Structure formats: C-alpha cells, structure tokens
Amino acid sequence: SVIFHRPPETFLHTGDGEPLPEDNPAVVQWRKDSKQIKLNETLSQIETWTNLMGQAIVQPAWVKGSELRLLVHAPYEVSVDQDPELPSEIDGAYVTVEIRQPLDSVGIRPTNVYATWQREDDDQWHMWIHDDRGNLRANPLFEDNISRYSRPGSGHPFVVFRREQPAPGGVFVPPDEALIQLALSSNLKLMDLDWVNRFQCHSQAVIVGHTVDEMPTLGPSRVLRFPDRDSSFSYVSPNPNLGELRESFNFDLRLAAVAMGMAPDTFEPQSSSRNLASKQLENYQLKLKRERAIPAYLSSLDKLWGSIKMVGDYWAGVTGTRVRYGDLELGVQL
C-alpha cells in the first residue's frame, strides 16, 4: 500500500482550490465527520482491500439516527446488476449488499439480511431491506422504501475503489491471486521452519543394548552402567538443512517482488541492498507505482465526496443537527 501510507490532508473549497478557514461551519462539520468515519484508518483499509481483492465498495451510511459512517464492503458481499449503457460503472447499476448480522447469545448468526437499491421505470430509486428469500423487512432509513438520496447519475450511495479498469463488459476486477498464494506459501514455509526448529534443533539420545527395565537415569551426577560390552550410549545430532529451507523461502519472496515490479529483496527480512544508489532505485520504483495509482484513487475520492454530501445533506435537512455542504468541494493532498 503506497497511497495512504500517511494520513492525507483534506480541506473544503468553493471550486477555486483555496481552502476555507477552519472556523467555517462546513469545515467544522467536516472535521467532525472525519473523526466519526475514521477517515485515515478507513482509507488505509480501502487501499489494502483494493490491492488484495481488486476493489473495495464504500458506502456512506447514516447510523443510529445521528451519525455518519463509512462502511467498507468486500466484493463478495456485493451483487451488481450492471447498467447496460455503462456496464463497468457502478453509479447507475442496481446494487444489493449484505447487511452484516451479529451473532446471538449462543453464537448462531441470524438469517442473512440484504439491502437492495434499484431504479424503477419512473426514474425513482427504491431501497428495500429483505432476507435471502425476498421477504421484506422494516426499513430504518425510508419506511416507504423510496430512496430520498440523489446525486448525478445515481440514487444509491455506493462508490467503488479500484486501481485499474475491469475487462470490457465486466464490473469487478479479479483479486491479486499471486499475492494471496504468496501469503499462503509464506505461512506454510514458516510452519515448516517452526516444526524443524521445534523437533530437530536438539540432539537425540540413542541407547543400544538396554532393555526397558534397564534404562539408565540420565543426569550430570549420574553414573551410566552398561550390562554388557555391546551396549552403547550416544547423542545423535539431526541435519535439518535449515539453510536450504531458508533459501527456498527467500527465492519465493524475491520472485514475487520481481513480478510486482519491485526490488528483488523487498520482502526479504535481510535486504542485500546496502548502498545509496540501490536504495534510491528502490524508492524510485515505489514512487512510480504510487504515481500510476494516484489518479484512480483521486477519482474515487471525488465520487465518495459526492456520496458523502448526498447522505449528509439529506439528513441535515431531516434532523436539523448538521451543516449542509451544498456545492463545496473536497480538496485532498496525498
């Protein structure tokens, strides 16, 4: 993760790029919202999931009747009925997302519950809460199941973050299977190292010519007695080939780093790059990866801000406890 390796600086402006003063009511509201949605931690989670699973779907949500939150959904929690005109975009698509249910007192998860956002023929967006059989549930946001949310091109709050566009006709980007397999392989090799260190790092006592009843008692103050001249006692040291196992592990890590376009020793615990030129080259490669990914994240952040405004401004009018953002724009400095 190279985009949100440190918290981004955010500010509100009227479209001219000039930050509004911190005592502006809308800015005060945004600072409060940033803390509530845990902006920095959430953006880091979004990037991590995007790198691993190809994308992350983010939903600004109004919870507990008074708070704004960002819900981050994994691709396997979201079903998309694609927009025929823009199949790779999620804005005009019908979206169904699983509502995570807590376990009950005996550790059993209740029936799955879903939220579906869909546009009818009259261009009106609807939002239903239902179970996996289609039975409607009570809707805490819109009792009549008619969504009051509206933004250009969409009536649902979902925004997709991804580093690259999907294949033509698709909406999801495949996960980074190579990274997943690298993690599995690394875990297996660490288990092998642990097993070898646990069971083959000590010498093993070997006694020949003794019966079970004649087993000697070992200890620094004990005298070993042998019943006949063919008896023997010795310690045998194992040969676990730790060097070969570590080299095999490091080879996989180097191969994965090269495949990702990074320095070969990026993942190695003991890097071999010690001179300044090598370090500068490594940093340059990481900088290039970051610069290539920044435009996609900025575009998604812009859409996310539009969704945050849509949700926040609607509930500002309903509750009267918030300041509306109106036409203000969000500036982000990465």
Question: What does the model show?
Answer:
- The structure is a single chain.
- With 334 residues, the protein is of the alpha+beta class.
- The chain has five helices and eleven strands, in the order βααβββββββαββααβ.
- A hairpin with a 5-residue loop joins β6 and β7 (125-131).
- α3 runs antiparallel to α4.
- The protein is elongated, with a radius of gyration of 30 Å.
Fold blueprint:
Blueprint: E1 9-13, H1 25-36, H2 39-53, E2 55-63, E3 67-73, E4 78-81, E5 94-99, E6 113-119, E7 125-131, E8 159-162, H3 177-199, E9 204-208, E10 232-236, H4 242-259, H5 276-319, E11 329-333
Antiparallel strand pairs: 1-11, 2-3, 2-8, 4-5, 5-6, 6-7, 9-10
